[in-house]
Amino acid sequence: MSDFDNLAVENFREYLRIPSVHPDVNYDACIAFLENQAKSLGLPIKTYHCLPKKPVVWLTWVGQEPEIPSILLNSHMDVVPVFKEQWTYDPFSAEMDNKGNIYARGAQDMKCVGIQYLEAIRRLKKANVTLRRTLHILFVPDEEIGGDEGMREFIKTKEFKDLNVGFGLDEGMASPDDVYAVFNGERCIWHLHIHCPGQPGHGSLLLDNTAGEKGGVQSNVVPPEFVLVIDCRIPVTVDVPKFEQTLKKWCDEAGEGIWIDYEQKQPQIPVTKLDESNPFWIAFKGASDEMNIKLKPQIFTGGTDCRYVRGLGIPAIGFSPMNNTPVLLHDHNEYLNKDVFLRGIEIYCKLIPAVANVEDKTG
User: Distance between CA 193 and CA 251 in Å, rounded?
Assistant: First the structure.
């Protein structure tokens, strides 16, 4: 491997060893790591707290036309919990086996992408590449628990507005074949708590209007209420108001007094257009074609911070350059192969200049 490759793998593994795992994440080590990266890249770094212990960190590479809308390269610092007994290696040791597979929580979701951004920039700067648009490389907290105290709050701030974002890249997902998944939209998330109240009493009594008639049954005891918890991921093709009317109709038909409490009820956010009206997509697709990489546009089944950016009317694409890789986000023994990781850096070395050099035609 080249010196650049060795450094990239070393930085990736160092970042993976930081246990920024829920619950109660301490992001201090992530901030210190990113400050060191910024220093090595010669880039300014800023940290902003929307809420206590919820830092948003970004590095900035100023373009030749800093007044025009910038490019946002977003990733999240947090990772989901682990069940260590189910792992072959310690999930925060970043062990690399003889096949080059690097095992760690966050290897795919999504510390790989954050490092790939930085290492691509390192190579571009070394090659004296200049960009038309300014780049902001953003690292946010709490994406894995919905981003309520991370990106959702940050987009409301003057600090985000001052970034003047015109286009964003964020996380995607691994592909088990040679095609790269690219996401221009997401299903919106509704978490429903359907409350089914009724007449309580002893399980031996034939009571009228019990909760069990509306949502379940329990031996011996008839409780005063059942609560059904449902995780809905609503496709972009669904008429959301009509869907809600259908839910209410089902509740009315099921029995008296049933009501819905929404733990999450996100709006249906328009997808990012993948046509001539979006010059950033044309640049992204053109650079991909030049590299002979196959793209498969699709709608993300889960939720990412892209939804908050798209909700502002900013075009954004989810993309993690991991093909021929099993999908292991949130799974035991999450890993990413070293060669796939390094290939992703090469891909970003083409994609970043392509989108950052899009000519400004906004007036």
Answer: 12
Q: Please give the average per-residue pLDDT across 14-19, as a whole number.
A: 98
Residues of the chain with CATH 3.40.630.10: 3-187+271-356
Annotated binding site for Zn(2+): 76, 109, 144, 171, 330
What is the torsional sign of CA 271, 154, 77, 333?
negative
Structure tokens at 1: 């491997």
Give the residue ranges of the annotated binding site: 76, 109, 144, 171, 330
Confidence grade of residue 216 (pLDDT, cut at 50, 70, 90): very low
- CA–CA separation, 303 vs 299, rounded Å? 10
By C-alpha distance, which of 360, 359, 352 is closest to 71? 352
CA dihedral for 294, 131, 270, 114, sign (positive or negative):
positive
Q: Could you tell me the two tokens for 99?
A: 């096949």
pTM: 0.92
Work out the pLDDT band at 226, boundaries 50, 70, 90: confident
- The mean per-residue pLDDT over the stretch 194-219 comes to 69
For the domain spanning 3-187+271-356, the CATH number is: 3.40.630.10
Contacts of 234 (CB under 8 A, 6+ apart): 187, 188, 189, 190, 240, 243, 268
Tens-digit pLDDT profile for residues 239-277: 999 999 999 999 999 888 999 999 989 999 999 999 999
The residues facing 309 across adjacent strands are none
Active site residues: 78, 143
